[in-house]
Amino acid sequence: MSGLRFASPGYRQLAEQLLDADGLESCAIGYARYESSCGSWLVADVQVLLEDAYESRGPVSATLKTAVLVEVANRSRVSGMAAVFIHTHPRDESCPCFSKIDDRGEAEIAQFMERRGAQLPHLAMVIGPHGTRARHLGSGEPVDIWEVGETLSLRSPLAPDVNEQSMDRQIRAFGDTGQQLLRRLHYGVVGVGGTGSLICQQLAHLGVDTVTLIDPDLVETTNLNRVVGTIPSDVGAPKVEVAARMMRAIRPSMTIVALCADVVDVGNMASLTACDFILLCTDSHASRALVNQVAYQFFIPVIDMGVSITTAQGDVTHITGRVQMLSPGLACLTCTRALDGDQIRQELMTPEQRMADRYVIGERVPQPAVISINSTVSSLAITMLLGAVTPVPAKPRFQRYDGIRGEVRTLASNPVHDCIACSRHGALGRGQNWDLPVRQPYHGNRS
């Protein structure tokens, strides 16, 4: 997701504070970690400037003191973060645009930052009562502004577009703008087996344009009962290729990147962080731990889903499913104790390391799986996605399905304030500056 990303409710709080200034222009300085691989800025801190920071200030212009600019440049250079110069247009009656006064002032600030600040693309941002815009500092190149939390909200204007007639019934549900935003996002699907293949099918029918599929597995005979889109002759083919074929049959214009790879291998991170929204459909703890952390570390919302059928002496005793959104402000999989640390350690081993570790016992036992139950959980996940991206009023962000009772319950869970994965004390918003739990290549024992 390229653009400037705020962790919710950061943008809304900033706009409310800046616009509460008796009609005067107000300024703030943001500091953001720039991720060149995906062209995004992760907002780490914002400081609203006090009255003594202004050289002059009125309803249509504001000029900062040179000492303030020096301080901003120094902090940018020392921290290695991009500066975001934010000001308001409190009297604009529509979404604000940058003025000629802004153009002149930015040109000088851009030259100053080029000499004194970090050698990064810095930004300018304007906020009004009816919207916001951002651009590269000193140029007209626009930058999208996102707020990431329980919803993925585009705060800057959405470029006008024409929706397809085939999406008419959906547009009647969540409007032209909702369909346009749903279509333009880049989705990642991690795991395209039982639940993942159903997710792929529904994304194609929803009219999305760009999807990255990641799964290392090949189709097996035992997959044919539940992996949608497979036929007997697909046995031995990469699951991602089968899923891509199915999606193109539904929507030929789709752009699909199909990676037959394990998401936890160190070389696959760029493909993951290029996504705007990730659907996590694996049952391995290592892959879930990795993508869980990516959600908070890079401000990329994720929906995790899983299904479990428990049997005893030939009888089904439990049918359960879970769907949980992972995004800034929401509890993560670590907070909800959904991850097994020892299992993560084992799954991050290379085959050579597993053979050498005497604590690794055997292989995983295949679990029962039924397409109808997978379909129920996948549909809950897609509906949660629609609630996060479009105006569909689907509010739950953590659900549990009981197939025996036929019940879906909404669960509540609060983030742990010092969580290593989802808090400011840990990985939240750190981008490439924080290690991820990836599998490193095995180089053998070194003396």
Automatic annotation (TrEMBL):
Any GO MF annotation of the entry: ubiquitin-like modifier activating enzyme activity
Organism this protein belongs to: Novosphingobium silvae
Top-level taxon: Bacteria
Name of protein: THIF-type NAD/FAD binding fold domain-containing protein
A single BP term in Gene Ontology: cyclic threonylcarbamoyladenosine biosynthetic process
Signal peptide boundaries: none
Residue ranges annotated for the THIF-type NAD/FAD binding fold domain, each copy included: 168-415
PANTHER family the record matches: TRNA THREONYLCARBAMOYLADENOSINE DEHYDRATASE (PTHR43267)
Pfam families linked: ThiF
